[in-house]
């Protein structure tokens, strides 16, 4: 309510200085008036201005605080909604779009609150100004009012068009951020496939559309600026013209002219502000609809899961992921007794993960019921790891019980590795667990579940990502009957047949139905499909009946767990990277005391130096025209009155009109010119950022949170696109306006020179003090904003895990705390603005006071026209000075966006994609021979070697399996082949060509990899298989047939144009891996690398894939990192790595006979 009481008093006080100006001109005209009267008027003008300043800033204080509260509320609502939306809703509002709702759309509400009072105070100001003008000029003022009314439809049309452009532009922005978010998530895959160029072009195409809309908006704004700027002048021109034309006796004297001019200047603000308020209203209404659309998304049914006492069951439940998804559990009847171990097996896409999701209540229930007893712990197929310490990831909000914690780390084979981590269990794990291997992530995820001490454990294939010996240890010590979870209810999705004999119940799924169910022995006796499957894949049934516990213990004595040496290197590297990045950010946030001039110079160059100079020149011309028009008016008012009339009225009016229209034209031209320059700068800076990020080495992405990079592409690019150009326009306008004022006052009352230096000194001191404070507060706000989006991104990714552990409320509290931390940075910023406003307006009020005072002192030598000119200019200067310092500080704060974008546009890049003078032949490699010569590699400078003096030769066409404890350097070896990691010493030769001598794309496009983590991008299946459009539909269908996906894709109405959702979430992990196989089949290069590619696939499909690889890549060199040793037992040779060196390298038969490391691993897997 305070806001509504403050605003009317502000509006009324606006008109007091104009009345004082009228009295002052009368005083100067009347030479006999006592001097004290003049001093009193000057004092009243000063006192009234000070009171107005204090009320105004109290009003602003309330308004801005309300704005940030509103933004915090909207952010909280969006966060809470994101935790409860269904899977189908997630696909329609992707992560990038929701982040935009938080960052851009919520901010629009804050902007609106600042102007909301203008909706009624602007019309009130217009009415009062017209009333006082009527008092001054009589009915002639109606001509001006008529013009204002005529301008309203024009402004309305511009606002409507702006809104349409706004909607279009937000669509482009959402698409760009969404695609960029996916690129950052899958950047490693892009590099391995050499797809950066294709995805760059997609981003550039979206950006081109976005810039075209921005250009239209900028030109529309230039026309709008012309109408806003010209409106008050045209109104005053028409009013004066009508006034002097209707009656020769109407004399335009100084009092009438300059009081009217001051009133017209008051009119300028509401006339300018109203369209701006309407524009902000239209933008906010667009944002409101977008937020409403998101908040109206379907939510998970709170009743989807029935908590009850008794057994854990899914009874006659028909469950579906969404209406068009075909592979889903249908009409399931399932009862799980308390304390039992249930194994769920079946081929890829049969609904295993869907069943787990159904039991969590994550799926849409069409009929039936799902009931569970007790609390639930969930280990997803793709582990979700928080950006927190290892300990925090395991505890997951539970209180610390040191004894139990140590026991669980030991059971999950994590304990022995803590001492090799830089900070033990306090080592920070990067965003999405980027600095852990797949197996490491999975085991931390499992430790979290075990520590939760829940009643029911849903384990979605947790053993697929770990080596066979580690899988055996985890099953024995955690999941199996003798493990930590013995006696708990466990539902285990698995492809590992060696553990099935210990399950109480095995459920075999096929096409979303239970095809068989029973104990292990019962299923073998049934002689069904399951028994046939077992006989094919397990040559010796005895492996199921006995447990070689001695071997398990002996092996685990030497197991370094999934951490090992490679993990140590990686953790050391990435841990340091994180800390280093953090410190760099701190330094830039707190120690850099001012933005370097080089940043302004860089932006000026991006705009174009010619354009920058032209804009300044046009503003100078506009100021000259404005001063000329007012001096002309002053001269006109001093013209002697002969026989009750003034002569040369038509000439006076014509010149005055010409000078005024000239001002408008110059303003419009400068707006147009700056619009062109601003778009040019936006294009250049974004292209440089995108190009650099596409060329950045992989370790940059491993050590930099994606939220931080995404912030550059969203918030910072938004500032460069839409905030900096209008800020510059406003700054130039206020600067030239203030300069004109000082020139006019000093030429009218030269005595003013005496106070100009002290006032300028005070002004500059206030400006510098404020700018330094404001800049650091802005940076603090920016630094505290990124964690909100990073945490939100993390939450959306792990929403199902958070819900399973019933930690939604905790995560809401964490999000609220991060928003509060951001608010703590925003609030001092608001207070510093009020501090500035009061002091700057005090300087402006002093200018008014001294202009009036010196007019009183020198009234004997001054004519009324000059006094009117001087004081009317002085009355404008407060606003100009205030906005000038604000715009200067805003520009300095916002130019930080250019600094941040440049910082990420100039980071170290990897080797060139193509080296023109050193390109391999088109048919290279024609043999596929790979040779490592004394090869060593480290993750980064200053870290230990990961691979040491590797020397080996793989002949063309050989099939080589690569095995070793996790951390031995297996994945590093494949990364070196693609030059994701560059050599510390030595070289790799492919067909005799040193790979370091050719371009990265020439190398990577000639090799093929099926990576461990299958990455898909939102878009058609066709685009995911072939983003460059190189292959025909026939070739794609053939690849799908060979990769066992033909049936699934053929069943989809869209076929190859089947839409994959973000991250390929509407396909199972196994199906995503098959898509990666189809990509490899399309490329069909001479060298194929499989990086644990079939870990997430059932044994039957794995067998099909291995058969496909053997037939389709018969003459090719195949390098396979294998968890399942049975897939490489028929390979030519097996390479065993240990601590970055070659431990064994021979045929599988010879290695088993040698009874070394490989023999031990084969024995664990039941193959020796």
Short description:
The protein is α/β, with parallel strands linked by helices and 1168 residues long.
The number of strands is 22
Helix vs. strand class: alpha/beta
> Residue share in helices?
55-70%
The major β-sheet equals:
6 strands, mixed
Give me the number of helical elements: 38
- Average of the residue pLDDT scores: 78
Low-confidence sequence ranges: 1-6, 308-328, 539-593
CATH topology of one domain: Rossmann fold
Instruction: Please identify which CATH superfamily of one domain we are dealing with.
Output: P-loop containing nucleotide triphosphate hydrolases
What percentage of amino acids are in beta strands?
A: 5-15%
Q: What Rg, in angstroms, do the CA atoms define?
A: 37 Å
Physical arrangement of strands within the biggest beta sheet = 6-7-8-4-9-10
- Just give the CATH class of one domain: Alpha Beta
């Amino acid at each position: 309510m305070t806001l509504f009481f403050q605003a009317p008093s502000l509006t009324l006080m606006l008109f007091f200085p104009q009345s004082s100006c009228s009295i002052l001109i009368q005083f100067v005209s009347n030479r006999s008036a006592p001097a004290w009267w003049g001093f009193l008027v000057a004092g009243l003008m000063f006192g009234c201005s000070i009171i107005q300043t204090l009320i105004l800033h109290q009003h602003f204080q309330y308004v801005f605080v309300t704005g940030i509260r509103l933004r915090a509320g909207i952010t909280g609502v969006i966060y809470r909604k994101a935790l409860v939306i269904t899977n189908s809703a997630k696909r329609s509002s992707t992560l990038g779009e929701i982040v935009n709702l938080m960052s851009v759309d919520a901010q629009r509400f804050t902007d609106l609150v600042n102007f909301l009072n203008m909706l009624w105070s602007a019309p009130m100001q217009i009415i009062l100004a017209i009333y006082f003008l009527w008092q001054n000029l009589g009915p002639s003022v109606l001509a001006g009012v008529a013009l204002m009314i005529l301008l309203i439809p024009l402004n309305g049309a511009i606002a409507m068009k702006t809104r349409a452009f706004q909607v279009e532009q937000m669509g482009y922005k959402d698409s760009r951020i969404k695609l960029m978010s996916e690129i950052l998530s899958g950047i490693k895959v892009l590099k391995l496939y050499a797809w950066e160029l294709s995805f760059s072009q997609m981003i550039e195409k979206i950006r081109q559309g976005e810039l075209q809309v921005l250009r239209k908006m900028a030109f529309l704004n230039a026309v709008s600026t012309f109408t806003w700027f010209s409106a008050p002048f045209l109104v005053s021109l028409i009013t004066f013209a009508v006034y002097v034309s209707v009656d020769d006796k109407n004399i335009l004297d100084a009092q009438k002219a300059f009081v009217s001019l001051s009133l017209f200047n008051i009119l300028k603000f509401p006339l300018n502000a109203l369209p701006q308020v309407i524009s902000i209203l239209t933008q906010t209404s667009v944002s409101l609809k977008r937020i409403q659309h998101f908040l109206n998304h379907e939510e998970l049914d709170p009743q989807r899961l029935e908590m009850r006492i008794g057994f854990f069951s899914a009874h006659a439940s028909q469950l579906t992921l969404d209406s068009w998804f075909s592979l889903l559990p249908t009409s399931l009847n399932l009862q799980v007794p308390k304390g039992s171990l249930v194994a769920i097996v079946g081929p890829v896409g049969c609904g295993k993960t869907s069943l787990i999701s159904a039991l969590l209540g994550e799926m849409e229930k069409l009929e039936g019921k799902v009931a569970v007893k007790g609390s639930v712990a969930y280990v997803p197929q793709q582990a979700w790891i928080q950006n927190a310490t290892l300990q925090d990831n395991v505890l997951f909000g539970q209180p610390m019980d040191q004894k139990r914690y140590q026991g669980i780390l030991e059971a999950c084979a994590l304990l022995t590795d803590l001492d090799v981590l830089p900070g033990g269990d306090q080592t920070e794990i990067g965003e999405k667990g980027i600095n852990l291997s797949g197996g490491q992530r999975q085991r931390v995820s499992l430790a979290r579940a075990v520590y939760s001490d829940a009643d029911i454990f849903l384990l979605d294939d947790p053993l697929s990502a770990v080596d066979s010996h580690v899988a055996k240890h985890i099953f024995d010590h955690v999941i199996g009957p003798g493990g930590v979870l013995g006696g708990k209810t466990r539902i285990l999705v698995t492809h590992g047949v060696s553990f099935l004999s210990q399950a109480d119940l095995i459920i075999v799924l096929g096409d979303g139905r239970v095809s068989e169910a029973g104990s292990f022995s019962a299923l073998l006796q049934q002689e069904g499909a399951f028994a046939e499957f077992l006989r094919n894949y397990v040559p010796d049934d005895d492996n199921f009946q006995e447990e070689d516990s001695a071997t398990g213990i002996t092996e685990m004595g030497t197991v370094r767990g999934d951490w090992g040496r490679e993990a140590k290197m990686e953790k050391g590297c990435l841990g340091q990277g994180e800390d280093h990045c953090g410190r760099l950010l701190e330094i830039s946030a707190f120690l850099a005391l001012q933005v370097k001039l080089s940043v302004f110079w860089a932006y000026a160059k991006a705009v174009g130096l010619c354009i920058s100079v032209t804009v300044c020149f046009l503003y100078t011309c506009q100021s000259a025209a404005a001063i000329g028009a007012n001096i002309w008016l002053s001269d006109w008012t001093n013209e002697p009155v002969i026989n009750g009339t003034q002569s040369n009225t038509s000439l006076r009016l014509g010149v005055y009109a010409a000078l005024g229209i000239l001002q408008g034209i110059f303003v419009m031209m400068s707006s147009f010119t700056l619009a062109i320059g601003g778009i040019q700068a936006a294009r250049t800076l974004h292209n440089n950022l995108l190009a650099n990020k596409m060329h950045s080495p992989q370790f940059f992405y491993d050590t930099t949170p994606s939220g931080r990079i995404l912030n550059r592409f969203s918030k910072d690019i938004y500032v460069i696109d839409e905030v900096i150009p209008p800020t510059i326009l406003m700054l130039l306008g206020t600067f030239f306006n203030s300069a004109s004022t000082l020139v006019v006052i000093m030429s009218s009352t030269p005595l003013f020179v005496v106070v100009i230096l002290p006032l300028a000194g005070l002004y500059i001191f206030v400006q510098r003090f404020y700018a330094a404070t404001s800049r650091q507060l802005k940076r603090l706000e920016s630094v505290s904003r990124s964690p909100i989006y990073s945490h939100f991104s993390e939450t959306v990714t792990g929403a199902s895990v958070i819900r399973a552990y019933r930690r939604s409320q905790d995560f809401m509290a964490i999000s609220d705390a991060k928003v509060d931390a951001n608010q703590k940075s925003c609030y001092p910023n608001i207070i510093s603005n009020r501090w500035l406003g009061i002091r700057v307006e005090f300087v402006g009020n002093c200018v008014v006071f001294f202009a009036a005072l010196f007019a009183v002192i020198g009234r004997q030598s001054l004519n009324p026209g000059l006094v009117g000119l001087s004081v009317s200019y002085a009355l404008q200067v407060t606003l100009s000075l205030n906005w000038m310092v604000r715009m200067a500080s805003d520009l300095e704060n916002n130019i930080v966006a250019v600094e941040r974008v440049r910082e990420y546009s100039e980071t170290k890049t990897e080797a060139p994609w193509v080296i023109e003078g050193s390109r391999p032949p088109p048919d290279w490699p024609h043999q596929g021979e790979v040779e490592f010569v004394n090869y060593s590699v480290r993750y980064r400078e200053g870290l230990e070697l990961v691979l040491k003096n590797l020397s080996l030769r793989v002949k063309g066409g050989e099939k080589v399996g690569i095995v070793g404890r996790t951390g031995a350097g297996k994945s590093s070896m494949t990364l070196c082949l693609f030059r994701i990691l560059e050599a510390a010493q030595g070289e790799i030769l492919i067909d005799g060509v040193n790979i370091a001598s050719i371009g990265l794309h020439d190398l990577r496009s000639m090799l093929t990899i099926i990576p461990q983590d299958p990455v898909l991008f939102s878009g058609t299946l066709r685009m995911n298989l072939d983003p460059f459009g190189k292959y025909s539909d026939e070739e794609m269908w053939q690849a799908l047939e060979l990769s066992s996906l033909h049936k699934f894709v053929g069943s989809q109405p869209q076929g190859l144009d089947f839409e994959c959702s973000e991250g390929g979430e509407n396909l199972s992990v196994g199906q995503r891996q098959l898509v990666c196989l189809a990509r490899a089949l399309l490329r069909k290069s001479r060298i194929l690398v499989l990086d644990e590619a079939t870990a997430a696939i059932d044994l039957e499909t794995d067998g099909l894939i291995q058969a496909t690889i053997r037939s389709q890549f018969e003459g090719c060199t195949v390098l396979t990192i294998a968890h399942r040793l049975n897939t490489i037992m028929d390979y030519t040779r097996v390479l065993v790595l240990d601590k970055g060196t070659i431990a064994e390298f021979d045929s599988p038969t010879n290695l088993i006979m040698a009874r070394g490391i490989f023999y031990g691993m084969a024995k664990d897997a039941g193959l020796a």
